[in-house]
Design a protein that fits this description.
By secondary structure, the chain is an alpha/beta fold. The chain is about 40% helix and about 15% strand. It contains 12 helices and 14 strands. The strands form 4 sheets. It has a 6-stranded mixed beta sheet, with helices on one face. A 4-stranded antiparallel beta sheet has the order 10-11-9-12, covered by helices on one side. Strand 3 and strand 4 form a beta hairpin. Helix 1 runs antiparallel to helix 11. The structure holds zinc ion (2 copies). The site of one zinc ion has 4 residues, from loops. GO terms for molecular function: dipeptidase activity. This is Peptidase M20 domain-containing protein 2. Belongs to the peptidase M20A family.
Length: about 400
Amino acid sequence: MKDTIKLCIDALKDELHSLSQDIWSHPELAGDEKFAHDRLVDFFSQTDQAWTVQSNYKLPTAFRATWGPVGCWKGKPVLNVAFLCEYDALPNIGHACGHNLIAEVGAAAAVGLKAALEHRTDLPAPITVLGTPAEEAIGGKTKLLEAEAFADIDLVFMAHPGQRDVSFQPSVTVTGLTVKYHGKASHASAYPWKGVNALDAAVLAYNNLSVLRQQLRPEWKLHGIIKNGGLKPNIVPDFTELAFCFRTPSIKDISELRAKAEACFTAAAVATGCQVEIIYPNHSYYNILPNATLAQLYKTNGEALGIQFAEPVAHVAASTDFGNVSFAVPGIHPIFYISTDAFNHTKEYTEAAGAEKAQLYTLRAAKALAMTAADVVCSPDLLRRVREDFSLAKQEEQEA
Ligand SMILES: [Zn+2]
Ligand SMILES: [Zn+2]
């Protein structure tokens, strides 16, 4: 089966390359990925008619492609394996996070595994490809989770380009918020005592949070900006707005950090006499739950393909909406090298994500993912261990 996966992906390498290349040359922002959506829908509808493809699946730029038995097979439940494709880009710098390559990995792994399963009627394992838009902004996966797009999925796989090959890279929980101060305008020199200064509230809040930072655990992060600081120097500002992000390694700590921060924002309002509005988004991105069995299988398969794995990088406080998925379905989100030392979200990384030399590494990651899925599909014992790891990781997260 693993040989079939490798042969199939190699045979389709030109189509797969042109898929990611087309997405790379048409960078689209989160939620607006119409070209990428259509290109991927075409790929699954036209390259191989065996896929059932649903365009605009639950979100305008999400899609779903499925192959294989649905629900039950000979009275037994099937094992539904999903590969995720991301395809949103960043403002001004295009595919600087390499999500065009995530789309390619998801597509390649899915067609590779399908080729291996086609002749194994003893293995009732349908394959689902989910196109999950808007990772960089609104957390498309959190919306798809809410819409129950993952309800019938048993295992979920994706891989993200980075600086090194790592089978599991911890990510952190992040939540953002907007804070608005409402004061009262007045002439800043003639009648300042008639005004209520919303900029003072913003500055005090910023300083309160800076003071708080020293008392936080080193792995907790907060960072923010003053988005609106008033209109003119001779008017006491009657409105200001701040945006902040809070990150902790585990979801269980985020409410404590939020409570401390809220006290800072409220104190600034009390001190200045302003009204404060604290607005949380609908979703936080959770940290990714580890799955030791899947990570080890990915490593073993990757090493057989020539991947040299590095240790996870400490203190990288990045976040992904895959974290939320990892709390709902067992899965992995390894990082793969693409022949550059540049960091994600830079112009240099955009170049690397569109370069021909990234292809070898991208397709290698796809093969390792599909081979890992094949391992679990073929072994009830591995599946049991994957599910045990999932339950244990969730339990530890709640108890820690
Ligand atoms: Zn990114
Ligand atoms: Zn990314």
